[in-house]
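Notebook p. 47: complex prediction with adenosine-5'-diphosphate.
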Amino acid sequence: MTRDPRHDILFEPVRIGPVTAPNRFYQVPHCSGMGWQFPRTLAAMREVKAEGGWGVVCTEYCSIHPSSDDMAYPYASLWDDRDIRAHRLMTDAVHAHGALAGVELWHGGRNAGNLFSRLPAMDLGSFPDAKGHPFQTRAMDRSDIRDLRRWHRNAALRARDAGFDVVYVYATHGYLLANFLNPRMNTRGDEYGGSLENRVRLVRELIEETKEAVGDRCAVAVRFAADAEIGEDGEPIEGERREMFAMLDGLPDLWDINIIDYSLEMGVSRFVKEGALEPYMGWVKSMTKTPVVTVGRFTSPDTMVSQIKRGVTDFIGAARPSIADPFLPKKIAEGRAEDIRECIGCNICYSGDALGVPIRCTQNPTMGEEWRRGWHPEIIPSKRAEGRVLIVGAGPAGMEAARALGQRGHQVMLAEAGRALGGRVTREAALPGMSEYARVRDYREQQLLTMPNVEIYRESRLTAEDVRDVGVSHVAIATGARWRKEAFDEEIYHEIATGGAAARVLTPDDIMDGVLPGGPVLVYDADGYYMGGVIAERLRAEGLSVTYATPSDSVSHWAGNTSERWRIRAQMQRLGIGVETATTLASFDGAEAVLRDAYDDAPRRLAVQGVVMVTARRPDDTLYRELREGSQPFTLARIGDCDAPSIIAAAVYAGHRYARELGEDVDRDAPLRHDRMELPG
Ligand code: ADP
Ligand code: SF4
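Predicted complex, structure tokens below:
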């Protein structure tokens, strides 16, 4: 296939100072949960992006000195010359595919707790730690500023020696340099604070010094926020940002523009849609001749072209779209836009950083597995096992298994009880704000329909006898899980209903099936991810009075890892949903729920006519257990939620792993390569 000529503009080379990007696809710095701990894992992950056609591929935030240490959040480092070797792995790999490599030099200020380095954190004043640790920063004096400038320069020189082509001055996201620019924070009385000119001084010096140090070989980029804050009407307040921008314009070779509100810039799709930064970008391009990059979770080539043509940006910046599909540019180049694995905006990728572990992605099961498992996002070795494969259940696990097995050349039968494919994804995508989750199904369905070796059987609920009658060599059970009505008290599952109230105890599955409580309702969320909040919103939309209760101290506490917890709570408050935190549910008699304080057990009664239990799920593994009885003429596996209920990403991963491993000689005792420091001897 050939490229659609309307997309040609995306493939124009763009000059950035002394270097030239081969096209307009720009993977902006994004955290990977790998940082300095996993250099080989990281290099292989970034390489795949370059191979997939991204013209510029950047690191995550890269600390310039141990006084900027964000552990347990993984970050890159350029602290000494030994770090250069680690980064070389990445730059060489990126260069091998003709792309440029970028590094985002970083000092965290009050956002770096220095839990690992144990140095006092420093910022422009003595401020409380940004992550809530009970310690404060040291106020930087002139000698600290001199040190900082020297560390930044030395890190830039190391970056150049490591082979980077683009070196960043990072002046956003509440890190040290952003605080120097901030008029409310920076009230210093010296030449680095107070007036606009003084506040900009440090950033200006760092840009100039970086250019002087490495500017002959490397482009110098500045990451800068286009807005100061959001007004009460939800519109950005530009304030003095334009003036600041004008004062610095002409110094950097590239502007990387984002906004201050992280939860909007990388917002989940439930609340933030494609191209959300555009309203903030309005003035930027008109004020500069320097190339500009910005993000917007762009996955549609037409939207990308429109952003360039309308002068919003010069580069299509991406973190998440490049994670979900490292080969997005190549697919557009080859006229295969329909093959793009579109990001669903769930931010599971970001949770890796938040949890201090390597990145994973709901849509792309190979993300983070490029080195340790040798998985490529587009290529799978041809099949080695003989015989047909039957997959029972077409949720994310079954669909991905069928897709990947089909790609390997297996003859595959995919049987699904329902009419629609997609399992939980199809059901959940109908809940408020969740429509983009359907992309997990849509990408796979679209791929499956092109595979002559995969047969799909809808409305086919199979029994054990049916499975045996099909006469295949391999069977994978992917029948999913259903929400339970019980609560779990850390030891056992127990019923909540008393006195015949069981019929008024519902689950998210009931709500998704269209069942509604008859009056005021309690949503009890012991799961802690998005489902409790979404169900509460769904019921509120029916005009019901809704109370949300959770044993946790915060609403949707796990969704803090995906950056959406705060938006979920704000949404609940906006919709008038009652919120009870640190509250457990003891019982429900059909008219009253007995709630207990999670700390002192004090009871409280709430008059409700229904309770929705968002607690845990029961694997739907009956079919698997029946088939497991006795010996079988086929290999048998269970995958996804029917094996161990989890997030959608885990189901996709399980399906993919099953397909990769079928017929392979897998070492169960040492299934992974372990990326760790090599010790002498
Ligand atoms: P996962 O997340 O593990 O992929 P889901 O719950 O999303 O699991 O999907 C499981 C799918 O399996 C559902 O679409 C369900 O209709 C289907 N299913 C369950 N039991 C059977 C069966 N016996 N035969 C065919 N399909 C089944
Ligand atoms: Fe997109 Fe979710 Fe993958 Fe992140 S994890 S890239 S948000 S699909």
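Notes: Residues 5-355 form a domain with the TIM Barrel fold (CATH 3.20.20.70). The mean pLDDT is 95.
Next step: compare against the earlier run before touching the bench.
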